[in-house]
Amino acid sequence: MKGSSQTKQSDREITISLQNVTISYGNSEAVRNIYCDIPRGKVTALIGPSGCGKSTILRSLNRMNDLIQGCSLTGRVLFEGADIYDPKVDPVEVRRRIGMVFQQPNPFPKSIYENIAFGARINGYTGNLDELVETSLKKAAVWDECKDKLNESGCSLSGGQQQRLCIARTIAIQPDVILMDEPCSALDPISTLKIEETMHELKKNFTIIIVTHNMQQALRVSDMTAFYNAEKLETGSGGKVGYLVEFNKTDKIFNSPTQKATQDYISGKFG
Amino acid sequence: MTQTKTTSHITKSDLAYDPGLNRNIFNNILTFTTAIFSFVSVLPLILVLSYVLIKGGSQINLSLITQLPEPPGDDLVSAGGIGNAILGTFIVTTIASIIAIPMGVGGGIYLAEYSNGGWFSRFIRFGTNVLSGVPSIIAGVCVYGVIVSTKIIFGANFSGIAGGIALSILMLPTVIKTTDEGLKLVSDDLRKGALGVGASKFITISRITLPTAFTPIATGIVLAIARAAGETAPLIFTALFSFYWPSGSQALFNPIASLSVLIYNFALEPYEAQNQLAWAASFVLVMLILLTNLFSRWLRNFTSINKS
Protein backbone atom coordinates (compact mmCIF):
# COMPACT_ATOMS: atom_id res chain seq x y z
CA MET A 1 0.00 0.00 0.00
CA LYS A 2 2.70 2.41 1.01
CA GLY A 3 4.85 1.22 -1.89
CA SER A 4 2.13 1.76 -4.46
CA SER A 5 1.39 5.29 -3.27
CA GLN A 6 5.07 6.03 -3.52
CA THR A 7 5.13 4.84 -7.13
CA LYS A 8 2.15 7.04 -7.86
CA GLN A 9 3.94 9.95 -6.27
CA SER A 10 7.00 9.44 -8.44
CA ASP A 11 4.80 8.91 -11.50
CA ARG A 12 3.29 12.30 -10.94
CA GLU A 13 6.71 13.87 -10.82
CA ILE A 14 7.93 12.30 -14.04
CA THR A 15 6.98 14.01 -17.25
CA ILE A 16 9.05 12.17 -19.84
CA SER A 17 10.31 8.65 -19.43
CA LEU A 18 12.72 6.94 -21.80
CA GLN A 19 12.52 3.18 -21.59
CA ASN A 20 15.22 1.16 -23.30
CA VAL A 21 15.49 3.68 -26.13
CA THR A 22 17.86 2.91 -28.99
CA ILE A 23 18.09 5.35 -31.90
CA SER A 24 19.73 4.46 -35.20
CA TYR A 25 20.63 6.37 -38.32
CA GLY A 26 20.30 3.86 -41.11
CA ASN A 27 22.03 0.75 -39.88
CA SER A 28 24.34 2.38 -37.35
CA GLU A 29 23.17 2.94 -33.80
CA ALA A 30 23.65 6.45 -32.44
CA VAL A 31 22.55 5.85 -28.85
CA ARG A 32 21.75 2.59 -27.18
CA ASN A 33 19.56 1.32 -24.35
CA ILE A 34 18.71 4.59 -22.65
CA TYR A 35 16.60 4.50 -19.51
CA CYS A 36 15.88 7.92 -18.09
CA ASP A 37 13.04 9.54 -16.14
CA ILE A 38 12.87 13.30 -16.53
CA PRO A 39 11.15 15.10 -13.64
CA ARG A 40 8.47 17.73 -14.11
CA GLY A 41 9.12 21.40 -13.35
CA LYS A 42 12.88 20.99 -13.25
CA VAL A 43 15.73 21.88 -15.55
CA THR A 44 17.43 18.76 -16.82
CA ALA A 45 20.78 19.13 -18.56
CA LEU A 46 22.20 16.60 -21.01
CA ILE A 47 25.98 16.80 -21.14
CA GLY A 48 28.69 14.72 -22.72
CA PRO A 49 31.39 14.76 -25.39
CA SER A 50 30.65 15.36 -29.09
CA GLY A 51 29.02 12.44 -30.85
CA CYS A 52 27.53 10.90 -27.72
CA GLY A 53 24.00 11.43 -29.02
CA LYS A 54 22.68 14.08 -26.62
CA SER A 55 21.08 16.07 -29.42
CA THR A 56 19.72 12.88 -30.94
CA ILE A 57 18.06 12.04 -27.63
CA LEU A 58 16.68 15.55 -27.31
CA ARG A 59 15.23 15.50 -30.82
CA SER A 60 13.62 12.15 -30.15
CA LEU A 61 11.59 13.69 -27.33
CA ASN A 62 9.36 15.68 -29.66
CA ARG A 63 9.79 13.55 -32.76
CA MET A 64 12.05 16.00 -34.56
CA ASN A 65 14.05 12.99 -35.67
CA ASP A 66 11.16 12.17 -37.99
CA LEU A 67 12.59 14.84 -40.28
CA ILE A 68 15.90 13.03 -40.59
CA GLN A 69 15.88 10.36 -43.21
CA GLY A 70 16.70 6.85 -42.10
CA CYS A 71 16.38 7.65 -38.41
CA SER A 72 14.58 4.98 -36.42
CA LEU A 73 13.84 4.43 -32.75
CA THR A 74 13.16 1.33 -30.71
CA GLY A 75 12.03 1.27 -27.11
CA ARG A 76 9.43 3.59 -25.65
CA VAL A 77 9.35 7.32 -25.02
CA LEU A 78 6.53 8.03 -22.59
CA PHE A 79 5.21 11.57 -22.27
CA GLU A 80 2.79 11.79 -19.33
CA GLY A 81 2.45 8.05 -19.59
CA ALA A 82 1.61 7.95 -23.31
CA ASP A 83 4.00 6.50 -25.87
CA ILE A 84 4.70 9.31 -28.35
CA TYR A 85 5.94 6.82 -30.94
CA ASP A 86 2.62 5.01 -31.00
CA PRO A 87 1.48 4.85 -34.66
CA LYS A 88 -1.77 6.56 -33.66
CA VAL A 89 0.07 9.61 -32.28
CA ASP A 90 0.24 12.78 -34.41
CA PRO A 91 3.76 14.22 -34.21
CA VAL A 92 2.37 17.73 -34.77
CA GLU A 93 0.32 17.32 -31.60
CA VAL A 94 3.40 16.11 -29.70
CA ARG A 95 5.39 19.17 -30.79
CA ARG A 96 2.62 21.45 -29.55
CA ARG A 97 3.00 19.98 -26.08
CA ILE A 98 6.80 19.73 -26.26
CA GLY A 99 8.25 22.85 -27.87
CA MET A 100 11.80 23.28 -29.07
CA VAL A 101 14.45 26.00 -29.17
CA PHE A 102 17.34 25.41 -31.56
CA GLN A 103 21.07 25.96 -31.61
CA GLN A 104 20.93 28.73 -34.20
CA PRO A 105 18.41 31.49 -33.47
CA ASN A 106 15.84 31.03 -36.25
CA PRO A 107 13.16 33.74 -36.08
CA PHE A 108 10.69 33.68 -38.95
CA PRO A 109 11.20 36.46 -41.51
CA LYS A 110 8.11 38.20 -40.13
CA SER A 111 7.53 40.94 -37.60
CA ILE A 112 8.37 40.30 -33.95
CA TYR A 113 4.66 40.30 -33.16
CA GLU A 114 3.92 37.77 -35.90
CA ASN A 115 6.78 35.56 -34.76
CA ILE A 116 5.02 35.09 -31.43
CA ALA A 117 1.47 35.09 -32.79
CA PHE A 118 2.24 32.48 -35.46
CA GLY A 119 2.40 29.49 -33.16
CA ALA A 120 -0.61 30.62 -31.14
CA ARG A 121 -2.73 31.18 -34.24
CA ILE A 122 -2.00 27.82 -35.81
CA ASN A 123 -2.76 26.20 -32.49
CA GLY A 124 -6.20 27.77 -32.51
CA TYR A 125 -5.56 30.27 -29.72
CA THR A 126 -8.73 32.28 -29.16
CA GLY A 127 -7.63 34.64 -26.39
CA ASN A 128 -6.18 38.13 -26.65
CA LEU A 129 -3.17 37.90 -28.97
CA ASP A 130 -1.70 41.25 -27.90
CA GLU A 131 -1.71 40.09 -24.31
CA LEU A 132 -0.16 36.73 -25.21
CA VAL A 133 2.61 38.41 -27.19
CA GLU A 134 3.38 40.71 -24.29
CA THR A 135 3.41 38.01 -21.60
CA SER A 136 5.47 35.65 -23.77
CA LEU A 137 8.06 38.30 -24.51
CA LYS A 138 8.13 39.27 -20.84
CA LYS A 139 8.63 35.68 -19.73
CA ALA A 140 11.51 35.36 -22.17
CA ALA A 141 12.98 38.61 -20.80
CA VAL A 142 13.08 40.32 -24.16
CA TRP A 143 10.01 42.57 -23.82
CA ASP A 144 11.86 45.71 -22.80
CA GLU A 145 14.17 45.48 -25.78
CA CYS A 146 11.47 45.09 -28.41
CA LYS A 147 8.24 46.51 -27.04
CA ASP A 148 8.67 49.63 -29.20
CA LYS A 149 9.36 47.72 -32.41
CA LEU A 150 6.90 44.86 -32.46
CA ASN A 151 6.25 45.52 -36.13
CA GLU A 152 9.89 45.31 -37.15
CA SER A 153 11.31 42.12 -38.57
CA GLY A 154 12.43 39.50 -36.06
CA CYS A 155 15.67 39.27 -38.03
CA SER A 156 16.56 42.87 -37.12
CA LEU A 157 17.29 41.88 -33.50
CA SER A 158 20.72 40.88 -32.24
CA GLY A 159 21.62 37.21 -31.93
CA GLY A 160 20.87 36.98 -28.23
CA GLN A 161 17.60 38.86 -28.62
CA GLN A 162 16.66 36.60 -31.52
CA GLN A 163 17.24 33.54 -29.38
CA ARG A 164 15.08 34.97 -26.59
CA LEU A 165 12.47 35.77 -29.24
CA CYS A 166 12.60 32.11 -30.26
CA ILE A 167 12.13 31.11 -26.61
CA ALA A 168 9.18 33.52 -26.37
CA ARG A 169 7.77 31.99 -29.55
CA THR A 170 7.94 28.57 -27.95
CA ILE A 171 6.41 29.80 -24.68
CA ALA A 172 3.52 31.32 -26.63
CA ILE A 173 2.22 27.90 -27.66
CA GLN A 174 2.04 27.10 -23.93
CA PRO A 175 3.79 23.76 -24.07
CA ASP A 176 4.40 21.52 -21.08
CA VAL A 177 8.03 20.93 -21.88
CA ILE A 178 10.63 23.10 -23.62
CA LEU A 179 13.56 21.40 -25.29
CA MET A 180 16.69 23.50 -25.84
CA ASP A 181 19.42 22.28 -28.14
CA GLU A 182 22.60 24.18 -27.15
CA PRO A 183 20.64 27.43 -27.12
CA CYS A 184 23.64 29.57 -26.19
CA SER A 185 26.37 28.09 -28.34
CA ALA A 186 25.97 30.81 -30.98
CA LEU A 187 25.80 33.63 -28.43
CA ASP A 188 28.17 35.89 -26.54
CA PRO A 189 28.59 35.53 -22.74
CA ILE A 190 26.25 38.40 -21.86
CA SER A 191 23.42 37.08 -23.99
CA THR A 192 24.12 33.63 -22.55
CA LEU A 193 23.74 34.98 -19.03
CA LYS A 194 20.43 36.61 -19.94
CA ILE A 195 19.10 33.37 -21.39
CA GLU A 196 20.18 31.48 -18.29
CA GLU A 197 18.32 33.99 -16.15
CA THR A 198 15.32 33.49 -18.40
CA MET A 199 15.52 29.76 -17.81
CA HIS A 200 15.43 30.24 -14.06
CA GLU A 201 12.18 32.15 -14.49
CA LEU A 202 10.77 29.63 -16.92
CA LYS A 203 11.19 26.59 -14.77
CA LYS A 204 8.41 27.86 -12.52
CA ASN A 205 5.97 27.07 -15.33
CA PHE A 206 7.72 24.63 -17.64
CA THR A 207 9.86 21.55 -17.63
CA ILE A 208 13.09 22.37 -19.42
CA ILE A 209 15.48 19.92 -21.00
CA ILE A 210 18.69 21.47 -22.27
CA VAL A 211 21.60 20.05 -24.22
CA THR A 212 24.80 21.91 -23.52
CA HIS A 213 28.49 21.60 -24.24
CA ASN A 214 29.24 24.00 -21.47
CA MET A 215 29.55 22.21 -18.14
CA GLN A 216 29.53 25.47 -16.17
CA GLN A 217 26.20 26.25 -17.79
CA ALA A 218 24.81 22.86 -16.79
CA LEU A 219 26.00 23.54 -13.24
CA ARG A 220 24.43 27.01 -13.22
CA VAL A 221 21.02 26.26 -14.68
CA SER A 222 20.12 22.64 -14.11
CA ASP A 223 18.61 20.67 -11.26
CA MET A 224 19.28 17.29 -12.83
CA THR A 225 22.13 16.28 -15.09
CA ALA A 226 22.46 13.32 -17.40
CA PHE A 227 25.97 12.48 -18.52
CA TYR A 228 26.26 10.67 -21.83
CA ASN A 229 29.39 9.12 -23.22
CA ALA A 230 30.30 7.39 -26.46
CA GLU A 231 32.13 4.14 -26.88
CA LYS A 232 33.61 2.49 -29.94
CA LEU A 233 31.36 -0.07 -31.59
CA GLU A 234 32.31 -3.72 -31.11
CA THR A 235 32.31 -4.16 -34.89
CA GLY A 236 35.51 -2.13 -35.03
CA SER A 237 34.22 0.01 -37.90
CA GLY A 238 35.37 3.12 -36.04
CA GLY A 239 31.75 4.16 -35.45
CA LYS A 240 30.66 5.26 -31.99
CA VAL A 241 27.53 4.61 -30.04
CA GLY A 242 26.31 6.81 -27.21
CA TYR A 243 24.96 5.60 -23.89
CA LEU A 244 23.80 7.13 -20.63
CA VAL A 245 26.52 6.91 -18.02
CA GLU A 246 24.94 8.61 -15.08
CA PHE A 247 21.77 10.53 -14.31
CA ASN A 248 21.39 12.28 -10.99
CA LYS A 249 20.96 15.59 -9.22
CA THR A 250 23.32 18.15 -10.71
CA ASP A 251 25.29 18.72 -7.50
CA LYS A 252 25.75 14.96 -7.13
CA ILE A 253 27.05 14.65 -10.69
CA PHE A 254 29.48 17.50 -10.25
CA ASN A 255 30.56 16.85 -6.68
CA SER A 256 30.41 13.12 -6.11
CA PRO A 257 29.85 11.20 -9.33
CA THR A 258 29.64 7.46 -8.97
CA GLN A 259 31.19 6.66 -12.33
CA LYS A 260 34.82 7.22 -13.21
CA ALA A 261 33.95 8.42 -16.73
CA THR A 262 31.77 11.18 -15.26
CA GLN A 263 34.53 12.20 -12.89
CA ASP A 264 37.02 12.32 -15.78
CA TYR A 265 34.69 14.32 -17.99
CA ILE A 266 33.70 16.99 -15.48
CA SER A 267 37.28 17.42 -14.37
CA GLY A 268 38.25 18.01 -17.98
CA LYS A 269 40.32 14.90 -18.60
CA PHE A 270 38.56 14.29 -21.92
CA GLY A 271 35.78 15.62 -24.12
CA MET B 1 76.50 47.49 -46.47
CA THR B 2 75.53 45.09 -49.26
CA GLN B 3 72.20 44.56 -47.49
CA THR B 4 71.19 48.23 -47.59
CA LYS B 5 72.28 48.52 -51.18
CA THR B 6 70.04 45.63 -52.27
CA THR B 7 67.07 47.03 -50.36
CA SER B 8 67.26 50.45 -51.94
CA HIS B 9 67.78 48.82 -55.30
CA ILE B 10 64.52 46.90 -54.94
CA THR B 11 62.36 49.86 -53.91
CA LYS B 12 63.67 52.19 -56.59
CA SER B 13 63.38 50.24 -59.82
CA ASP B 14 62.27 46.62 -59.36
CA LEU B 15 58.88 47.44 -57.86
CA ALA B 16 57.95 49.87 -60.59
CA TYR B 17 55.41 48.72 -63.17
CA ASP B 18 57.18 47.81 -66.39
CA PRO B 19 54.79 47.73 -69.36
CA GLY B 20 57.44 46.10 -71.52
CA LEU B 21 57.52 42.98 -69.38
CA ASN B 22 56.27 39.82 -71.12
CA ARG B 23 53.59 39.06 -68.54
CA ASN B 24 52.29 42.61 -68.61
CA ILE B 25 52.09 42.67 -72.42
CA PHE B 26 50.31 39.33 -72.33
CA ASN B 27 47.95 40.57 -69.64
CA ASN B 28 47.05 43.69 -71.61
CA ILE B 29 46.45 41.74 -74.81
CA LEU B 30 44.13 39.29 -73.04
CA THR B 31 42.23 42.05 -71.25
CA PHE B 32 41.72 43.79 -74.57
CA THR B 33 40.62 40.56 -76.25
CA THR B 34 38.04 39.72 -73.61
CA ALA B 35 36.73 43.28 -73.76
CA ILE B 36 36.28 42.94 -77.53
CA PHE B 37 34.48 39.61 -77.16
CA SER B 38 32.15 40.87 -74.49
CA PHE B 39 31.29 43.84 -76.66
CA VAL B 40 30.65 41.57 -79.64
CA SER B 41 28.36 39.42 -77.51
CA VAL B 42 26.07 42.32 -76.66
CA LEU B 43 26.23 43.65 -80.21
CA PRO B 44 23.31 41.47 -81.44
CA LEU B 45 21.13 42.82 -78.62
CA ILE B 46 22.00 46.40 -79.52
CA LEU B 47 21.51 45.77 -83.24
CA VAL B 48 18.18 43.98 -82.84
CA LEU B 49 16.80 46.53 -80.41
CA SER B 50 17.89 49.56 -82.41
CA TYR B 51 16.78 48.08 -85.74
CA VAL B 52 13.35 47.18 -84.37
CA LEU B 53 13.18 50.56 -82.70
CA ILE B 54 13.95 52.45 -85.93
CA LYS B 55 11.87 50.30 -88.25
CA GLY B 56 8.93 49.70 -85.94
CA GLY B 57 9.01 52.70 -83.62
CA SER B 58 8.14 55.07 -86.46
CA GLN B 59 4.89 53.18 -87.13
CA ILE B 60 3.51 53.53 -83.64
CA ASN B 61 0.20 55.36 -83.47
CA LEU B 62 -3.13 54.93 -81.76
CA SER B 63 -4.87 53.23 -84.69
CA LEU B 64 -2.23 50.52 -84.54
CA ILE B 65 -3.61 49.19 -81.29
CA THR B 66 -7.28 49.86 -82.00
CA GLN B 67 -7.62 48.49 -85.53
CA LEU B 68 -7.67 45.03 -87.02
CA PRO B 69 -5.05 43.85 -89.51
CA GLU B 70 -6.12 43.78 -93.15
CA PRO B 71 -5.56 40.75 -95.36
CA PRO B 72 -2.68 41.22 -97.81
CA GLY B 73 -3.59 42.83 -101.09
CA ASP B 74 -6.83 44.52 -99.98
CA ASP B 75 -5.29 47.91 -99.37
CA LEU B 76 -1.85 48.73 -100.70
CA VAL B 77 -1.35 51.83 -98.54
CA SER B 78 -2.25 50.61 -95.06
CA ALA B 79 -2.46 47.18 -93.45
CA GLY B 80 -4.57 48.30 -90.50
CA GLY B 81 -3.56 47.66 -86.89
CA ILE B 82 -2.52 44.88 -84.56
CA GLY B 83 -5.14 45.31 -81.85
CA ASN B 84 -6.41 41.75 -81.96
CA ALA B 85 -2.87 40.36 -82.00
CA ILE B 86 -1.92 42.25 -78.83
CA LEU B 87 -5.10 41.08 -77.14
CA GLY B 88 -4.54 37.54 -78.45
CA THR B 89 -1.00 37.41 -77.09
CA PHE B 90 -2.32 38.46 -73.69
CA ILE B 91 -5.11 35.87 -73.79
CA VAL B 92 -2.92 32.96 -74.92
CA THR B 93 -0.18 33.83 -72.41
CA THR B 94 -2.76 34.10 -69.65
CA ILE B 95 -4.14 30.66 -70.49
CA ALA B 96 -0.59 29.30 -70.47
CA SER B 97 0.07 30.93 -67.06
CA ILE B 98 -3.16 29.59 -65.57
CA ILE B 99 -2.03 26.09 -66.50
CA ALA B 100 1.71 26.32 -65.92
CA ILE B 101 1.95 28.36 -62.70
CA PRO B 102 -0.11 26.12 -60.37
CA MET B 103 1.32 22.96 -61.90
CA GLY B 104 4.88 24.24 -61.88
CA VAL B 105 4.77 25.71 -58.38
CA GLY B 106 3.05 22.57 -57.10
CA GLY B 107 5.66 20.36 -58.75
CA GLY B 108 8.46 22.50 -57.36
CA ILE B 109 6.97 22.29 -53.86
CA TYR B 110 6.80 18.53 -54.16
CA LEU B 111 10.43 18.28 -55.30
CA ALA B 112 11.82 20.62 -52.65
CA GLU B 113 9.61 19.84 -49.65
CA TYR B 114 8.06 16.40 -49.97
CA SER B 115 10.25 14.21 -52.15
CA ASN B 116 13.00 12.26 -50.44
CA GLY B 117 15.51 12.19 -53.26
CA GLY B 118 14.29 8.82 -54.52
CA TRP B 119 14.06 7.65 -58.10
CA PHE B 120 10.76 9.44 -58.70
CA SER B 121 12.03 12.91 -57.81
CA ARG B 122 15.30 12.29 -59.67
CA PHE B 123 13.24 11.31 -62.69
CA ILE B 124 11.11 14.46 -62.43
CA ARG B 125 14.17 16.70 -62.10
CA PHE B 126 15.84 15.02 -65.08
CA GLY B 127 12.60 15.23 -67.06
CA THR B 128 12.29 18.93 -66.27
CA ASN B 129 15.78 19.58 -67.57
CA VAL B 130 15.03 17.63 -70.75
CA LEU B 131 11.74 19.47 -71.23
CA SER B 132 13.44 22.85 -70.93
CA GLY B 133 15.72 21.81 -73.79
CA VAL B 134 12.92 20.60 -76.06
CA PRO B 135 12.63 22.89 -79.12
CA SER B 136 9.46 24.95 -78.95
CA ILE B 137 8.30 23.72 -82.35
CA ILE B 138 8.17 20.18 -80.94
CA ALA B 139 5.80 21.38 -78.21
CA GLY B 140 3.64 22.91 -80.96
CA VAL B 141 3.63 19.77 -83.10
CA CYS B 142 2.89 17.65 -80.05
CA VAL B 143 -0.12 19.75 -79.01
CA TYR B 144 -1.22 19.79 -82.64
CA GLY B 145 -1.15 16.01 -82.74
CA VAL B 146 -2.80 15.44 -79.38
CA ILE B 147 -5.33 18.28 -79.16
CA VAL B 148 -5.81 20.15 -82.45
CA SER B 149 -6.05 17.29 -84.94
CA THR B 150 -8.15 15.13 -82.63
CA LYS B 151 -10.49 18.06 -81.74
CA ILE B 152 -10.53 16.66 -78.25
CA ILE B 153 -11.47 19.96 -76.51
CA PHE B 154 -15.16 20.53 -77.32
CA GLY B 155 -14.52 19.85 -80.98
CA ALA B 156 -12.28 22.87 -81.30
CA ASN B 157 -9.71 22.77 -84.04
CA PHE B 158 -7.03 25.47 -84.00
CA SER B 159 -7.77 27.48 -80.87
CA GLY B 160 -6.51 29.86 -78.21
CA ILE B 161 -6.82 27.05 -75.68
CA ALA B 162 -4.53 24.81 -77.73
CA GLY B 163 -2.06 27.70 -78.08
CA GLY B 164 -2.11 28.29 -74.32
CA ILE B 165 -1.47 24.61 -73.65
CA ALA B 166 1.49 24.60 -76.05
CA LEU B 167 2.99 27.66 -74.35
CA SER B 168 2.37 26.20 -70.89
CA ILE B 169 4.55 23.23 -71.84
CA LEU B 170 7.37 25.68 -72.49
CA MET B 171 6.77 27.58 -69.25
CA LEU B 172 6.48 24.55 -67.04
CA PRO B 173 10.16 23.56 -66.66
CA THR B 174 11.22 27.13 -65.79
CA VAL B 175 8.51 27.46 -63.15
CA ILE B 176 9.26 24.04 -61.61
CA LYS B 177 12.99 24.71 -61.52
CA THR B 178 12.80 28.18 -60.00
CA THR B 179 10.29 27.03 -57.38
CA ASP B 180 12.40 24.00 -56.50
CA GLU B 181 15.59 26.04 -56.25
CA GLY B 182 13.92 28.97 -54.50
CA LEU B 183 12.55 26.67 -51.80
CA LYS B 184 15.86 24.89 -51.41
CA LEU B 185 17.46 28.26 -50.61
CA VAL B 186 15.19 28.62 -47.57
CA SER B 187 17.14 27.66 -44.48
CA ASP B 188 16.19 24.36 -42.87
CA ASP B 189 16.33 26.15 -39.51
CA LEU B 190 13.13 27.98 -40.44
CA ARG B 191 11.31 24.74 -41.22
CA LYS B 192 12.48 23.21 -37.94
CA GLY B 193 11.45 26.37 -36.10
CA ALA B 194 7.95 26.18 -37.53
CA LEU B 195 7.61 22.46 -36.81
CA GLY B 196 9.04 23.09 -33.35
CA VAL B 197 6.10 25.34 -32.45
CA GLY B 198 3.67 22.70 -33.62
CA ALA B 199 3.03 23.72 -37.23
CA SER B 200 1.94 20.98 -39.61
CA LYS B 201 3.87 20.47 -42.81
CA PHE B 202 1.19 22.26 -44.82
CA ILE B 203 1.25 25.30 -42.52
CA THR B 204 5.05 25.33 -42.57
CA ILE B 205 5.13 25.41 -46.35
CA SER B 206 2.23 27.77 -46.94
CA ARG B 207 3.01 30.26 -44.16
CA ILE B 208 6.79 30.12 -43.78
CA THR B 209 8.77 28.57 -46.63
CA LEU B 210 6.71 29.70 -49.63
CA PRO B 211 6.49 33.37 -48.51
CA THR B 212 10.22 33.33 -47.77
CA ALA B 213 10.96 32.04 -51.27
CA PHE B 214 8.45 34.38 -52.91
CA THR B 215 10.98 36.55 -54.75
CA PRO B 216 12.93 33.87 -56.66
CA ILE B 217 9.71 32.05 -57.52
CA ALA B 218 7.94 35.19 -58.75
CA THR B 219 10.99 36.23 -60.75
CA GLY B 220 11.14 32.81 -62.40
CA ILE B 221 7.45 32.95 -63.25
CA VAL B 222 7.72 36.40 -64.80
CA LEU B 223 10.70 35.32 -66.93
CA ALA B 224 8.81 32.21 -68.03
CA ILE B 225 5.86 34.39 -69.08
CA ALA B 226 8.19 36.68 -71.00
CA ARG B 227 9.64 33.72 -72.84
CA ALA B 228 6.26 32.23 -73.66
CA ALA B 229 4.86 35.54 -74.93
CA GLY B 230 7.48 35.72 -77.65
CA GLU B 231 7.16 32.16 -78.97
CA THR B 232 6.02 31.68 -82.56
CA ALA B 233 6.53 28.06 -83.55
CA PRO B 234 4.12 26.43 -81.07
CA LEU B 235 1.39 28.94 -81.95
CA ILE B 236 1.59 28.34 -85.71
CA PHE B 237 0.51 24.75 -85.08
CA THR B 238 -2.08 25.48 -82.43
CA ALA B 239 -3.57 28.98 -82.27
CA LEU B 240 -3.06 29.76 -85.96
CA PHE B 241 -4.11 33.32 -86.77
CA SER B 242 -7.23 35.40 -87.10
CA PHE B 243 -8.08 38.71 -88.70
CA TYR B 244 -10.88 39.39 -86.22
CA TRP B 245 -11.31 40.30 -82.57
CA PRO B 246 -11.73 37.32 -80.31
CA SER B 247 -15.38 37.57 -79.32
CA GLY B 248 -18.37 35.63 -78.18
CA SER B 249 -18.57 32.58 -75.99
CA GLN B 250 -16.52 30.57 -78.49
CA ALA B 251 -13.61 33.05 -78.53
CA LEU B 252 -11.12 30.71 -76.88
CA PHE B 253 -12.13 27.77 -79.07
CA ASN B 254 -11.43 29.51 -82.36
CA PRO B 255 -8.16 30.45 -84.02
CA ILE B 256 -6.75 33.52 -82.33
CA ALA B 257 -4.23 36.14 -83.45
CA SER B 258 -0.95 36.73 -81.68
CA LEU B 259 1.89 39.19 -82.20
CA SER B 260 4.51 36.60 -82.99
CA VAL B 261 2.42 34.78 -85.61
CA LEU B 262 1.37 38.12 -87.10
CA ILE B 263 5.03 39.00 -87.54
CA TYR B 264 5.75 35.59 -89.06
CA ASN B 265 2.86 35.84 -91.53
CA PHE B 266 3.18 39.47 -92.56
CA ALA B 267 6.94 39.72 -92.78
CA LEU B 268 6.86 37.15 -95.60
CA GLU B 269 4.14 38.92 -97.59
CA PRO B 270 5.18 40.63 -100.82
CA TYR B 271 3.21 43.76 -99.86
CA GLU B 272 5.03 46.69 -98.29
CA ALA B 273 2.10 47.67 -96.07
CA GLN B 274 2.02 44.26 -94.39
CA ASN B 275 5.79 44.30 -93.94
CA GLN B 276 5.55 47.63 -92.18
CA LEU B 277 2.86 46.27 -89.90
CA ALA B 278 5.10 43.33 -89.05
CA TRP B 279 7.81 45.79 -88.00
CA ALA B 280 5.37 47.66 -85.83
CA ALA B 281 4.27 44.39 -84.22
CA SER B 282 7.93 43.46 -83.62
CA PHE B 283 8.43 46.73 -81.84
CA VAL B 284 5.40 46.21 -79.61
CA LEU B 285 6.40 42.60 -78.83
CA VAL B 286 9.98 43.53 -77.97
CA MET B 287 8.77 46.33 -75.73
CA LEU B 288 6.32 44.05 -73.95
CA ILE B 289 9.02 41.46 -73.28
CA LEU B 290 11.49 44.14 -72.23
CA LEU B 291 8.95 45.55 -69.80
CA THR B 292 8.25 42.11 -68.37
CA ASN B 293 11.96 41.55 -67.80
CA LEU B 294 12.32 44.95 -66.17
CA PHE B 295 9.32 44.12 -63.98
CA SER B 296 11.04 40.93 -62.79
CA ARG B 297 14.15 42.93 -61.92
CA TRP B 298 12.08 45.49 -60.09
CA LEU B 299 10.31 42.69 -58.23
CA ARG B 300 13.68 41.32 -57.08
CA ASN B 301 14.97 44.71 -55.93
CA PHE B 302 11.68 45.76 -54.38
CA THR B 303 11.44 42.72 -52.16
CA SER B 304 15.12 42.69 -51.22
CA ILE B 305 14.85 46.30 -50.09
CA ASN B 306 11.77 45.45 -48.06
CA LYS B 307 13.57 42.58 -46.34
CA SER B 308 16.63 44.49 -45.18
Short structural description:
Chain A has helices at residues 2-13, 54-60, 91-97, 112-122, 129-139, 143-146, 159-172, 189-202, 215-221, 250-255, 260-266; strands at residues 14-25, 28-39, 43-47, 71-79, 82-83, 98-101, 177-181, 207-211, 224-232, 240-249. Chain A contains 11 helices and 10 strands. Chain B is flat, with a radius of gyration of 27 Å.
Would you write up a description of this structure?
The complex is a heterodimer of chains A (271) and B (308). The model of chain A is unreliable at 1-9 (pLDDT under 50). Chain A contains eleven helices and ten strands. In chain A, β7 (177-181), α8 (189-202) and β8 form a beta-alpha-beta unit. In chain A, strands 6-7-8-3-9-10 form a six-stranded mixed β-sheet, with helices on both faces. Chain A has one domain (2-266): P-loop containing nucleotide triphosphate hydrolases (Rossmann fold, 3-Layer(aba) Sandwich), CATH 3.40.50. Chain A is 37% helix and 27% strand. In chain A, α7 (159-172) runs parallel beside α8. Chain A is an alpha/beta fold and 271 residues long. The longest helix of chain A has 14 residues, at 159-172. With 308 residues, chain B is an all-alpha fold. In chain B, 74% of the residues lie in helices and 0% in strands. Chain B starts with a helix and ends with a helix. The chains are: A alpha/beta (271), B mainly alpha (308). The interface between A and B is medium-sized, with 28 and 20 residues.
